[in-house]
């Protein structure tokens, strides 16, 4: 467990810096662009992320899944083949997506931005697309080698440089600086990831033959096809939601939704980073060991709950104060959206501990099923909630979707490895949900004036024991015993530590 905490701590430290820099850049964007302009920025970001998801075709994740074990045993030949195969795929997929952007630029402009007059902007997003996909390949290789510190440094430097670029461009050119900011940010991400890969991972010294590279590309393609389809129905739906909001409501509503989502994603961003760059490689290594995998899930879930619950409750307490400070008073409508999203975050992070295990162990069709359920739930709950509750329905739909997703991944992983939550994990999950709902409904009761005080008291009451348990279980000299999936002591988790070059 200590190795999990160490990796999470390294990635968390970098994420705190990135979150702070993101808040500074977000403040400048909000004040300079106002809700409608901020919404336009969010629509472009979402469009780029969606096209990147399609063009990258799961290459970064595939490099981790297929290359992590090869990197662990210093299999230079396999790594060389995978790298060459990834670049074959990059040339093919990026070329196809770029042609599609050029041919359908007017239609895409109308669909993604609500106006056919931004066709030129859609073409420029193709430039950002190429840099982003290429950078993801560098990051995927670095992640396959489990270079946690390098990934953390890369993230901080990229965020710092992109933040400076964003602030400067928007202050000088206003809304006309948005497109240069996105393209420049993609180029910066590519350059920084290239630098860290070549600094941290020595050249394999081998050149892959065309036949071997093609076989590796086909292996990545076989993984990437179902994976991309799965993510399109999961993460992809989240990227499309701002565009749906634009057509259901208006441009200002997109700005409110973007503002709420930026905080919902950002304040616990370190957990997302840690799970993708540390937890996923670990689950991939233990994919064929059900008992070890069950223990890993319970350990990761415990750590996630210990770190996330106090932060969720604290954010719930401060949201009405936080939004005007981080953005401006014009973004006050985002408060109610964010409050519901924060409750949904409890289910989101809990479900992700199981979803990563499903991705590592199960077939592509099973993972596709889980993401399909999540994507359909997001679309349906958001559409229904917006029609019934208006703007606040964006947050209510988020919560409802992740409740559905949580139970879907629980049923699947339970059938796959007979996962049983430890008693502490059960208590933390139930307690967190109960406390969050108490805070959320207080404004509708005679005790509305005590909402902030009660929320802060709950956050402190949970936070202090959480800090104590983190210290006791992850920082104490003696490695504690953790209940395994059968509530008995299980074999020690097999993990591999990689030394940075």
Strand content: under 5%
Number of strands: 0
- Given as residue ranges, the uncertain stretches (5+ residues, pLDDT < 50) are 479-501
Number of domains: 1
What does this structure look like?
This protein has 501 residues and is mostly helical. The protein has one domain. It is built from 17 helices and no strands. The chain has helices at 2-56, 59-72, 76-103, 105-113, 119-144, 148-173, 178-200, 210-233, 235-248, 251-266, 269-285, 290-326, 334-361, 364-389, 393-417, 423-441, 451-475. α13 packs parallel to α15. The protein is globular and about 75 Å long. 53% of the residues are buried.
Secondary structure: elements and pairs:
Elements (H helix, E strand, L loop, with lengths): L1 H55 L2 H14 L3 H28 L1 H9 L5 H26 L3 H26 L4 H23 L9 H24 L1 H14 L2 H16 L2 H17 L4 H37 L7 H28 L2 H26 L3 H25 L5 H19 L9 H25 L26
Helix pairs in contact: 1-3, 1-5, 1-6, 1-9, 1-10, 1-11, 1-12, 2-3, 2-5, 2-8, 3-5, 3-8, 4-5, 5-7, 6-7, 8-14, 9-10, 9-14, 10-13, 11-12, 11-13, 12-13, 12-16, 12-17, 13-15, 13-16, 14-15, 16-17
């Amino acid at each position: 467990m200590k190795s999990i905490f160490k990796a999470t701590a390294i990635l968390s430290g970098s994420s705190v810096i990135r979150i702070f820099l993101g808040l500074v850049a977000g403040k400048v964007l909000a004040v300079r662009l106002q809700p409608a302009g901020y919404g336009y920025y969010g629509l472009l970001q979402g469009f780029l992320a969606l096209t990147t998801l399609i063009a990258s075709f799961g290459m970064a994740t595939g490099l981790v899944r297929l290359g992590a074990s090869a990197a662990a045993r210093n299999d230079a030949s396999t790594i060389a083949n995978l790298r060459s195969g990834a670049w074959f795929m990059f040339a093919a997929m990026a070329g196809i997506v770029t042609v599609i952007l050029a041919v359908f630029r007017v239609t895409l402009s109308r669909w993604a931005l609500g106006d056919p007059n931004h066709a030129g902007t859609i073409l420029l997003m193709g430039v950002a697309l190429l840099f982003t996909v290429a950078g993801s390949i560098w990051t995927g290789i670095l992640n396959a080698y489990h270079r946690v510190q390098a990934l953390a440094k890369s993230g901080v430097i990229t965020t710092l440089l992109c933040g400076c670029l964003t602030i400067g461009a928007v202050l000088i050119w206003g809304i006309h600086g948005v497109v240069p900011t996105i393209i420049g940010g993609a180029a910066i991400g590519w350059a920084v990831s290239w630098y860290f890969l070549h600094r941290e991972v020595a050249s394999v010294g081998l050149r892959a033959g065309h036949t071997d590279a093609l076989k590796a590309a086909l292996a990545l393609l076989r993984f990437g096809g179902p994976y991309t389809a799965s993510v399109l129905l999961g993460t992809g739906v989240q990227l499309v939601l701002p565009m749906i909001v634009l057509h259901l409501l208006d441009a200002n509503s997109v700005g409110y939704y973007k503002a709420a989502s930026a905080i919902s994603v950002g304040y616990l961003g370190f957990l997302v980073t840690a799970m993708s760059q540390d937890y996923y490689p670990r689950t991939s290594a233990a994919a064929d060991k059900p008992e070890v995998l069950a223990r890993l899930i319970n350990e990761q879930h415990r750590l996630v709950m210990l770190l996330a619950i106090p932060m969720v409750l604290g954010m719930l307490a401060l949201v009405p104060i936080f939004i005007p400070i981080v953005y401006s008073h014009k973004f006050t409508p985002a408060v109610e959206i964010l409050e519901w999203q924060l409750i949904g975050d409890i289910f989101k992070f809990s479900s992700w501990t199981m979803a990563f295990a499903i991705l590592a162990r199960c077939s592509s069709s099973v993972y596709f099923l889980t993401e399909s359920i999540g994507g359909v739930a997001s679309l349906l709950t958001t559409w229904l909630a917006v029609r019934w509750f208006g703007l606040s329905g964006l947050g209510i739909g988020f919560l409802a979707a992740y409740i559905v997703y949580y139970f879907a991944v629980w049923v699947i992983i339970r059938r796959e490895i007979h996962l049983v939550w430890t008693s502490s994990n059960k208590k933390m999950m139930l307690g967190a949900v109960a406390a969050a709902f108490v805070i959320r409904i207080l404004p509708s009761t005679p005790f509305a004036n005590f909402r902030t005080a009660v929320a802060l008291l709950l956050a402190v009451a949970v936070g202090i024991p959480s800090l104590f348990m983190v210290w006791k279980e992850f920082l104490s000299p003696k490695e504690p015993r953790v209940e395994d999936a059968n509530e008995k002591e299980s074999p020690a988790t097999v993990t591999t530590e990689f030394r940075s070059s």
